[in-house]
Amino acid sequence: MSLAAEMTVILQLPTRSLYQGQAAGLTAVAPTGAFGMLPNHIDFVTAIVPSVVTLRLLDGSEAFFGLDEGMLVKKGHNVTIAALRGVQGDALDSLQETVEASFIQMDEEERQARSALSRLEANMVRRFAELERPIP
User: Fold this and answer.
1) Are 66 and 98 in contact (CB under 8 A)?
2) GO cellular-component terms in the record (predicted)?
């Protein structure tokens, strides 16, 4: 593996890609604690706990992401993070508000989906019960 000044970072959610681009470094939080990673870091895999992932971009700026639990895989100069939920924030101080608003909305949508699924299951069970009734 050659030495590099940048790495490709992909932040993937179940339904979409949250970020894909080049970075000079990142910080994240694993179950064992916070860590930093540069492009020439050794390859590894770790779980990610709900926290803030910070990317140091090539122009020197930083990008902040509030992520739910997930996995980070570093192979070569590529880092892929797969998380259940996530949002990008403009600044670290406003990220908490963005995360709360987004996750509350996602929780409500999940609650509505579970409710609809329960109604669908109950309707299916009722129809199967009707099939077993003798025809008069």
Assistant:
1) yes
2) endomembrane system; plasma membrane; proton-transporting ATP synthase complex
Tokens 């140091």 correspond to 56
Q: Are 67 and 85 in contact (CB under 8 A)?
A: yes
Question: Is the predicted pLDDT of residue 30 greater than 90, yes or no?
Answer: yes
Q: What is the pLDDT of residue 102?
A: 65
Domains in the chain, ordered, with CATH?
7-132 (2.60.15.10)
Residue of higher predicted confidence among 90 and 64: 64
Distance in angstroms (rounded) separating the CA atoms of residues 89 and 85: 13
Give the list of residues 6+ apart from residue 24 with CB closer than 8 angstroms, or none.
Answer: 5, 6, 7, 38, 39, 56, 57, 58
Tokens at 89, concatenated: 């924030």
Write the DSSP symbol of residue 3.
-
Q: How far is residue 49's CA from residue 34's CA, in Å, rounded to a whole number?
A: 10
Cα torsion 37, 38, 39, 43 to 10°: value is: -40
Is the model's pTM score more than 0.90? no
Residue 29 CB neighbours (<10 A) = 17
Torsion sign across C-alpha atoms 52, 54, 85, 93:
positive
